[in-house]
């Protein structure tokens, strides 16, 4: 099953049950999800395949394996797991008792796969690697999105190389929203652009001219680091026709040694903008600070930690489920 970025929202129902496709992946013009899956399987198989399976598991052996959550959290990657099983062996029968975005508890069995034992074991680690990472991202996103409300939580481009769409899919499953997918779908004028252009006003002016010349329409965001930069930007936007849509208020959240944060500068900035543009807070965003940041009135809060420092959610796929649960209880992991 080929799933390119342009097809991402139209995965065939025959390959992925529609009931498990609770959240579709973000659309991307060039990303090939099937190629990512193939690469993950290839790095595991090498040039000989699963030599342990070849040595120990008869080719005609059938087995049933169960997915077991070994921690509480938000499960993500079910739809992707289905794609991987289909790629390894379309004859495998997979049944899910949860869908992407559902909460799972430690010890819960939330899915099972039946068929060729060799195929199940070959797919196992690749499926779990994707699911554990995606579930970790979704779990943190859910916690931060709930705390940030009414502000929306965003990730950044600080994703694992090659897994951009997968990481951002997990953010959607967790209840967040996507920032730009790459360099192509949004103009984002950051500090280095501003320094090279000779100021925030010069940078935005150049972008306005470029978009007009190329007859392009896309969101435009400008990063501001001081209230002076913000005032200069607003002054330009008042006097000129501009494509500006969002203002990033970067590092206007000042941390205190006790773990608290001072958001007074951020609040002042939001009041200056006064709803004329979307606002985005970034810097010093954690699960402990995001509620206070959200209360300032910002539209969005972006956090690189959602994807660059993810703690995987522990998930197992076990054939001898009862023994796995027994061991899990002994080690407090089920």
Describe it.
This protein is an alpha/beta fold and 334 residues long. It folds into two domains: 5-137 and 311-330, Quinolinate phosphoribosyl transferase, N-terminal domain (Aldehyde Oxidoreductase, domain 3), CATH 3.90.1170.20; 145-308, Aldolase class I (TIM Barrel), CATH 3.20.20.70. The chain has twelve helices and 14 strands. The radius of gyration is 23 Å and the shape is elongated. This is Nicotinate-nucleotide pyrophosphorylase [carboxylating]. It holds the Pfam family QRPTase_C. Involved in the catabolism of quinolinic acid (QA). One of its GO terms (cellular component) is cytoplasm.
**Fraction in beta strands:** 15-25%
Alpha-beta classification: alpha/beta
Unreliable residue stretches: 1-15
Question: Can you tell me the number of structural domains?
Answer: 2
Q: Could you please say which CATH topology of the largest domain applies here?
A: TIM Barrel
Helix content: 40-55%
What series of H and E elements makes up the topology?
HHEEHEEEHEHEHHEHEEEHEHEHEH
Terminal CA distance reads 34 Å
Top CATH class of the largest domain: Alpha Beta
CATH architecture group name of the largest domain: Alpha-Beta Barrel
Largest sheet: 6 strands, parallel
Q: Give me the side-by-side strand order of the main sheet.
A: 6-13-12-9-8-7
Q: Radius of gyration in whole Å, from Cα?
A: 23 Å
By DSSP, the count of extended strands is 14
Oligomer: single chain
Anisotropy-based shape: elongated
Task: Please report the number of helical segments.
Answer: 12
Supply the CATH superfamily name of the largest domain: Aldolase class I
Mean pLDDT across the residues is 92
